[in-house]
Amino acid sequence: DEEVYKYYADGEWRKSTSGKSVSIINPTTRKTQFKVQACTQEEVNKVMEAAKVAQKAWARTPLWKRAELLHKAAAILKEHKAPIAECLIKEIAKPAKDAVTEVVRSGDLVSYTAEEGVRILGEGKLLVSDSFPGNERNKYCLSSKVPLGVVLAIPPFNYPVNLAVSKIAPALIAGNALVLKPPTQGAVAALHMMHCFHLAGFPKGLISCVTGKGSEIGDFLTMHPGVNCISFTGGDTGIAISKKAGMIPLQMELGGKDACIVLEDADLDLVAANIVKGGFSYSGQRCTAVKVVLIMDSVADEVVEKVKSKVAKLTVGPPEDDCDITPVVTESSANFIEGLVMDAKEKGATFCQEYRREGNLIWPLLLDHVRPDMRIAWEEPFGPVLPVIRILSVEEGIHHCNASNFGLQGCVFTRDINKAIMVSDAMESGTIQINSAPARGPDHFPFQGLKDSGIGSQGITNSINMMVKVKSTVINLP
Ligand code: G3H
To answer: Which of 161, 167, 287 to mutate to test the pocket of ligand 1 (most atoms within 8 A of CB)?
Structure first.
């Protein structure tokens, strides 16, 4: 009689009528850790109906009251940081300290969103007619931001809590209802996070969380006529969703192949520290991880040596011990990473460390002398393996970066601010960091991907603005 975690609908915890469950495999032990309900399409329909009804009343709830509830949820979330972090350790093998950080950051994000929301949604616009040719001042246009309706949020496994609240909080402050479909790995952490919102006292049906198999409810959710907006973070699935979704606003953050361009005059210790942090934190399973180093040949040997000595100090093992490198999320992910590594080996890349794998645990690996004919030069491993491509000119680095089908973030290291700006302008990516590894945060910064890396811009302010529409009332004077 194993426990199957219930899903959340209409303000209560429910068992699915399917009688089926989905297993969550612990990446470290590779054994079933938890089970969640496999919801049915009929249950999704009910959630959508409840959301629609609840949203109408929520949209009329004063903005300050919506903010108050979000602040309450944020505080409860922080109080529950230990048990939620425990789920993140067991479900996605996130190192213990990072797991706690994710929950605290999420609480802060919810509070900030509440504050930002009351400011930007508290403002409307007044236009007068006589600025346009042929008009007298006899029309006043009042416009304000109103909710879209029901927002569907689909976060990925690597931040099941933080990338859930980055969609939930803006949706709610703006007066929308919210349906969450968490990733399988991370679903229990997401359900626990949902419990915090439940304790805060949001109206019944306004927020819900359905769990289940993508094959059963994935398309059904994303193509559901009751959905008025989709905010998705993940991989290629996002491209498929954007093709199938209806005429609704979409916010997508997909993969990345963030390039790190290193010029000759860079601070090489700073470079090495950022390559290790950017490439290997959470075992490279971040969309903003450094995924290819493009380094001027004249400084490459020195940087590779510095990186090697730092990589040797990384701890490898279970997330419970707060190791730097922990098992990657699934066996198929580990197999995919291994495939990229073996391809590079066959084609002559230099391994700076010995390749080592036990189960889902892959030891950190820097691959030097990678060339463009190797898969790892272009594909996203989402693991602790990092290719180094030596370049003879800045233009060569920019060219490689821009030839990628991804364009999330990138970074450039140089002491020359003029060169830094020139490279930043030339790189076709959503954000370029000067002298630091890519990162999404602070969470109020705009965050966007170009090309196959996504559509729309996130970050707290942009997400709130994306989850509203402009509504005008024109007063016509006689
Ligand atoms: O994995 C994708 C995340 O949006 C990256 O966030 O830069 O805070 O790790 P991060």
So the answer is: 287
pLDDT tens per residue, range 256-308 = 999 999 999 999 999 999 999 999 999 999 999 999 999 999 999 999 999 99
Where are the alpha helices (H) located in 121-203, listed in sequence order? 162-173, 187-200
Task: Give dist(CA 7, CA 16) in Å, integer.
Answer: 8
Helix-then-strand count for the chain, H and E: 14, 26
Q: How far apart are CA 171 and CA 378, in angstroms?
A: 35
Let me know if 354 is a catalytic residue.
Answer: no
Of these residues, 253, 264, 302, 428, which one is catalytic?
A: 253
**Which residue is listed with tokens 């969550």?**
24
- Contact in structure between 390 and 297 (CB atoms under 8 Å): yes
d(CA 406, CA 255): 7
CA distance 382 to 387: 12
Residues of the chain where predicted confidence (pLDDT) is lower than 70: 1-2
- Strand 409-413 with 361-362, pairing: unpaired
- Residue-wise pLDDT for 5-58, tens only, equals 999 999 999 999 999 999 999 999 999 999 999 999 999 999 999 999 999 999
* Phi, psi (degrees; rounded to nearest 5) at 9: -145, 140
Q: Is residue 48 within 8 Å of 223, Cβ to Cβ?
A: no
Q: Tell me how far the alpha carbon of residue 36 is from its chain's centroid.
A: 22
Distance 265 CA to ligand 1 centre (A): 28
What sign for the dihedral angle of Cα 76, 77, 79, 83? positive
